[in-house]
Amino acid sequence: MREIERERREEEEGSGGAAGALEGGGEEVSEAAGQRRAVRLWRELGEELGVGSKRARRRTRSDAGQARLTWRDLQVLRFIGEQYAVTHEQLGRLLARFAEDASERERVSSQLVYRMRARWVTAGLVEARAVIAGEPSIVWLTARGRELVELDVRSWRPTMNTIRHVPAVTEARLFLESQRPDGEWVAERLLGRDQGAGGGREVSGRRPDGEFRYEDSVLAVEVELSAKKETRLRSIVRDRLERYDAVWYFAPAEPTHLRELITRVASAVYAERVERAAALRRQGGLDDERRAVEVAKLERRPLTLRALDGEKLWTTAGA
Fold first, then answer.
1. What sign has the CA pseudo-torsion 230, 306, 314, 302?
2. Rounded distance, CA 237 to CA 222, Å?
């Protein structure tokens, strides 16, 4: 421990308290400082759990038989951090997805999920509990967990407004990744970080709940659990269809009026776009190639609605 404390002091003196700046204000730190911090954290965790790695040289350990952090731990923890949180049931599916043992890819026992959670809680990597009575327990990363997986985002804790929405977005991500394993999900949390640095697609208005990229397409993904005012929803749909190749809305099967609202708004926005395309065809002053491109953008961007269990409900014309 004296060696770890000495390295910690040297790092803080050399970086001007960069670790504190990262947690408090989300500022960038140097790559070298980040690597030193990761090494230090791995050593500290080694004392508590016995940290392991695929790349580690095989040798007899004094903690043989005890729990160790694996690459599956790191992949699942990173997923949790990107999505803000996951439910206990979703955690079981993630552990199965990233399992190295083929027998665990079909099903992970509830007992194993609890054991994994307990290990991470003991190491100070996650918090896990049922925040509201009647709602499923959820798991989210602590500052130490975010540091371990090198996730440079601000801290987050569940609230009344997010306790149901966050797991629903995670459900949409799990469905899309199961349908398109070659696709790439970009979480809303990371879109916010990238846009703060001057990147990303978001220029004005709120961010989508996620982006899903596959082949040459980028989808905006939205999850709605309660009805918005129609004018607001129309503004969101119009904005997403202007800037993305398609928009996928996920909504529960009940209440039906929510699906009806999204359907009505999508149809109205799509009709607007068809009318604009017709007007563009009649417009002079544009060369044929440019006009064709603009018309295609207006007519070939669909909005699709799916239930949260993945069942397709409808899609606009012009897909």
1. positive
2. 9
Distant-in-sequence, close-in-space partners of 276: CB < 8 Å, separation ≥ 6: 298
Per-residue pLDDT of 60-89, as tens digits, reads 444 444 447 889 999 999 999 999 999 999
| Residue type for position 78 | R
For the record, the structure tokens of 46 come out as 């080694």
Find the domain containing 16 and state its range: 1-48
- Taking the CB of residue 74, how many other CB atoms lie within 10 A of it? 15
Q: CATH code at 138?
A: 1.10.10.10
Predicted structure pTM score: 0.71
Q: How many C-beta atoms lie closer than 10 Å to residue 179's C-beta? A: 11
Let me know if residue 58 belongs to a domain: no
Q: Number of folded domains in the chain?
A: 3
Residue 140 φ then ψ, to 5°: -140, 160
Q: CA angle, corner 11, sides to 9 and 17, nearest 5?
A: 90
Cβ atoms 111, 195 nearer than 8 A: no
In a domain? residue 56:
no
* Alpha carbons 60 and 126: distance in angstroms, whole number: 29
CA 92 → CA 35, 117, 290, distances in Å? 30, 10, 50
